[in-house]
Design a protein that fits this description.
The protein is 51% helix and 16% strand. The chain is built from six helices and five strands; from the N terminus they run ααβαββααββα. Strand 2 and strand 3 form a beta hairpin.
């Protein structure tokens, strides 16, 4: 009986430790954003946006650090990676990231309607205390890179 109890306790401990390892502990968001911008295929040429401009694009978010790459405006393509104080803040930010995508749909609907399809496939994912937003048609590559960083 005691051996079964210890075996059960060890199994539960192993499962709980396994769950912890799936969230990124410390992500270099500059590196992740650059990797996404370089390895994912984009129609437009993306450029890194100055830190002061990020709050104009993502005005509903409060973050610790952020990196944003955007195109010329002729497309909705972008890469954004944010660091928050904790996983709870990042989880809440996912809703703001999705709201940003919805806002972009409204903006592009009359301006460049073809971009709405790209926005409908946008990636908004959380990994621990981080959130990433990627607007591209090359979602498979973006998903794989984010998966490598333990985003979901």
């Amino acid at each position: 009986m005691r051996k079964k109890w210890i075996a059960g306790l060890l199994a539960a401990l192993a499962l709980s430790l396994g769950g912890c390892s799936s969230a990124p502990e410390d992500v270099d968001i500059d590196k992740l954003a650059a990797e996404l911008a370089e390895k994912v295929s984009f129609t437009d040429e993306l450029a890194q946006i100055d830190d002061g401009m990020i709050s104009m694009v993502y005005d509903g978010l409060t973050w610790e650090d952020a990196v944003l790459y955007m195109g010329s405006g002729a497309t909705a393509e972008e890469v954004a990676v944010f660091a928050f104080t904790d996983a709870k803040a990042a989880r809440m930010a996912v809703q703001e990231g999705k709201a940003h995508i919805e806002s972009q749909k409204g903006a592009f609907e009359n301006y460049v309607p073809e971009e709405v399809k790209r926005l409908e496939g946008a990636i908004v994912q959380q990994g621990g205390r981080y959130m990433a937003v990627v607007v591209t048609e090359d979602t498979d590559t973006a998903d794989q890179i984010l998966k490598d960083y333990h985003f979901k």
